[in-house]
């Protein structure tokens, strides 16, 4: 899922435009796996699989593999349709630079949700 | 032929707690007055689909007004020098003052989110003036899930952040065109208004100790909550309903926090039977 972020995001003109003022390095933690995602002016550059020792990041998103799998369904179950729904349930954590996160909130929400398109293409309900 | 909707908008002036307000309201239909209260940080346009539904307007006079500071209702003179904060007393008085100014007889009041919260207070304090209340996404209390400080500060765009905060609190099958129209209402809110509304919602309206005092034989109570609302959850609605003898709780599948505006076609399948029941009970009286 995460490895396909560059293709999914960069081919989405509206999403890139939404993030045009954003340059950041984020970390997405899926269970025990860490992915480092480099964002430059709304476009996703490299996605690297960690872990990396002593490497800084701007914002991290963390949840279990099961929780992300529910979040990335085409039509998620109640509570799994939004990152804040997951944090309220205690199933996800957002940490790091909250100012940067809130300044670009819709972009980050869209970025995290973009793998749902893969589920839609697979005809996954 | 151009399509002209039956909705008519006007302005009305009336005082609340000694302050004069110029209030914008829209209406359509004839019959039992149905006063609709918008969510925090938005305005009465959320009810445009209901006001265009002839199954509703044939029997109800549907009226939606913008609270002061919202939509086309002005803030009070001198607003630039004060922080907006909605509180229970002011909110309840504003709604009742509006109903009295329009000389509405035994209206039904329906509100969503913070509007769903205040209708519980109205049912408690003004039961004899009201026919029924409908609380959409309504509960006596809910657990906070965000810090309202982010909603009004110069280094975060208010319109963008208010919309983005609530953008996922809808059903995943709700059509994009309605989802984004709902968010547009949030994008258009004045600076600090959503935050000021949330002072009522988050700080000044813990009704957990009070709702048991509502007498549904004097004012019927309907609580309708979308299954995808993670802010005011179905569990919050059920808990609230259990405390109010005679209250009816309806969980709406597929809907989130903005049922009337995020998916109006689905919402009408839930609201029409409720409005039918209220109108039917009216005839029996």
Summarize the structure.
Chain A has 125 residues and is of the alpha+beta class. Chain A is built from seven helices and five strands.
End-to-end distance of chain B, in Å?
Answer: 43 Å
Q: How many β-strand runs of chain A? A: 5
Put simply, the count of helices of chain B is 10
Helix percentage range of chain A: 25-40%
Structural class, judged by helices and strands of chain A?
A: alpha+beta
Strand order of the largest sheet of chain A: 3-2-1-4-5
Q: Going across the major beta sheet of chain B, what is the strand order?
A: 1-2-4-3-5-6-7-8
**Overall pLDDT score of chain B:** 96
Which CATH-level-2 architecture of chain B?
Answer: 3-Layer(aba) Sandwich
Report the C-alpha radius of gyration of chain B, rounded. Answer: 17 Å
Element string of chain A (H = helix, E = strand): HHEEEEHHEHHH
- Identify the CATH architecture of the domain at 2-64 and 93-116 in chain A: 2-Layer Sandwich
Largest two-chain interface: A-B, 20 and 24 residues
User: What structural class do the secondary elements of chain B suggest?
Assistant: alpha/beta
Strand percentage of chain A, roughly? 25-35%
Q: Which superfamily, in CATH terms, is the homologous superfamily of chain B?
A: Alpha/Beta hydrolase fold, catalytic domain
Largest sheet of chain B: 8 strands, mixed
Poorly predicted runs of 5 or more residues of chain A: none
Shape of chain B: globular
Q: Give the radius of gyration of chain A.
A: 14 Å
Give the total of beta strands of chain B.
8
